[in-house]
DNA sequence: GCCAACGTTGGC
DNA sequence: GCCAACGTTGGC
């Protein structure tokens, strides 16, 4: 089982929204970055654990945990003309973008802020600490445990 | 709302 | 295939 971090803008889709969704589950659609796509399509497996991170908002940081409940399949919004995520170059035979399903698991006792993550020297690998545009990123077991410990303080 | 970082596009 | 221009992300 591997660990991941997914970013979301809470104004668009928050941890609360996930918790209140049918079956507390959502399709994680709309990822349009190749590096993130490759993680989704090639590496993220059923049962993997996901930290949900709120970006572009007042309280930026990790807020909760979700579980991957369906492995990668084509993102249907790429074929939908009415969607913001429509991609004219994607075909059903050769999809360009993929999704997984994630299910709410838990809320952290407290938000682990980006600031506190950056300030923690024990978090050594997390991509967030450096350049931050990637919306889906791997998390090492050590970094995962560090963040969970920070949430428990 | 600003702006730095960085990904993507397109001309050559 | 390079790289400048442009667009987007995301923290502040």
How is this structure best summarized?
The chain has 153 residues and is an alpha+beta fold.
Determine Rg (CA atoms, Å).
Answer: 15 Å
Strand content: 25-35%
> CATH class, anyone?
Alpha Beta
Query: What helical percentage do the residues reach?
Result: 10-25%
The biggest sheet, with number of strands, parallel, antiparallel or mixed sense and barrel status, is: 6 strands, mixed
CATH topology: ph1033 like fold
List low-confidence stretches.
Answer: none
* CATH superfamily placement: ph1033 like domains
Instruction: Give the number of DSSP strands.
Output: 6
What is the CATH architecture descriptor?
Roll
Helix-strand string:
EHEHEEEHEH
Sum up the overall morphology in one term: globular
Structural domain tally: 1
The pLDDT mean sits at: 94
Task: Record the strand order, biggest sheet.
Answer: 2-5-4-3-1-6
- Helix-and-strand structural type: alpha+beta
Assembly state: single chain
Distance between the termini: 25 Å
Q: Number of helix segments?
A: 4
